[in-house]
Design a protein that fits this description.
about 350 residues; alpha+beta; Rossmann fold; 2 domains; 5-stranded antiparallel beta sheet; 8 helices
């Protein structure tokens, strides 16, 4: 069983129009801020009502505009982890967990103790949310959500408020939780790295619409659409013209590429990821561009080069990113005279 969602909702000059179905495991929704990711989750949870559509969870209809079905939040059995965790500020940790439970007081306390131990929160029962770290607040919110035994977990930007080290630690914990949960998980994020790490399948949202759905690794390897390539982090995209069955002219870079894939008439762009090209001192037979440096930046672990086609100084810049062989090496290492673009790394985009 799974979640099937078909949602259409208009608000403030923006239309959310999405349709997807979860598969076993974790599905991700990737998109920029304001594309409708969080609104999609709110419609599934029952916090917002779609104008039209149908939402079915494990064969149970949560919403159907034609049949006028709209189950209230408390009857949907959906676990929703909000961006800000939505803990009650005037309640202690124990009270925040107690509020979602039914049954005898002794039974509830036993289950709460079990969850506190599971999420390493023992000893924090009497603390208020303001007295907890961001990571502890997230653990409390997760514990509260799972006490309700939801049929699906929905995570809304679960790591956006956390610093780097804590984020890495909690992501590992979340991966373990998802494996243990063994039910559907729906996660929304603007971070391509988070979606790639957690999600076997994904949906790409652009301005309220699904532009691509499928297996996460397949979409990153071959996004097929220009917008999808940008959302998955491709830095090098040029307008393109078909020159032959396996030949494309990149207008922005003033260069003709030979391609491994057959060029369809619908192709409008060409892209290559910044890590997937090869600097060279001498030209190779195919796809070797004579280059000139156009800038340089660095991170602690990467050298980030900008370069142009030396044959046309007015052409647009491209990115080439390489790992630093030594963290102590901070001096810029100039690129050689040529950049080689492997056929298999070129992405033909509509």
């Amino acid at each position: 069983m799974a979640l099937q969602a078909k949602i259409k909702k208009k608000f403030f000059g923006f239309t959310l129009d999405v349709e997807f179905e979860t598969k076993e495991g974790c599905m991700g929704i990737l998109g920029a801020s304001g594309c409708g990711k969080s609104m999609t989750l709110k419609c599934i949870a029952g916090i917002e009502k779609p104008d039209s559509g149908r939402i079915v969870l494990n064969g149970r209809v949560l919403f159907d505009s034609e049949k006028k079905i709209n189950l209230p939040v408390q009857k949907r059995n959906v676990g929703y982890l909000f961006q800000n965790y939505a803990l009650f500020p005037t309640m202690t940790v124990e009270q925040n967990l107690m509020v979602v439970m039914e049954g005898k007081k002794e039974e509830k306390r036993a289950k709460i103790k079990e969850q506190l131990e599971r999420f390493e929160l023992s000893g924090l029962e009497k603390r208020y949310p303001s007295q907890l770290s961001g990571g502890q607040q997230q653990r409390v919110a997760l514990a509260r959500m799972l006490l309700h035994q939801p049929e699906i977990i929905m995570l809304d930007e679960p790591f956006s408020a956390l610093d780097g080290f804590l984020k890495d630690t909690l992501q590992l914990e979340m991966l373990e939780l998802i494996e243990e949960y063994q039910k559907d998980v729906l996660m929304v994020s603007h971070s391509r790295d988070e979606i790639y790490r957690f999600c076997d399948n994904m949906v790409l949202l652009e301005k309220g619409s699904c532009i691509l759905k499928g297996k996460t690794t397949d979409i990153f390897a071959n996004p097929r659409k220009m917008e999808a390539a940008r959302l998955t982090g491709c830095k090098n995209i040029s307008a393109a013209e078909k020159r032959g069955s396996h030949s494309v002219y990149a207008r922005d870079w003033d260069f003709v590429f030979e391609t491994e894939e057959e060029v369809k008439d619908s192709i409008k762009y060409i892209g290559i990821r910044a890590h997937y090209m090869k600097p060279s001192d001498v030209p190779e037979k195919i796809n070797s561009m004579k280059i000139v440096s156009a800038g340089y930046t660095e991170t602690p672990f990467e050298n980030q080069h900008l370069f142009k086609n030396a044959e046309n100084p007015k052409s647009k810049r491209l990115w080439y990113i390489e790992e630093k062989p030594d963290l102590k090496e901070t001096t810029e290492q100039p690129l050689p005279s040529y950049m080689v673009f492997p056929k298999k790394s070129l992405m033909l985009l509509e």
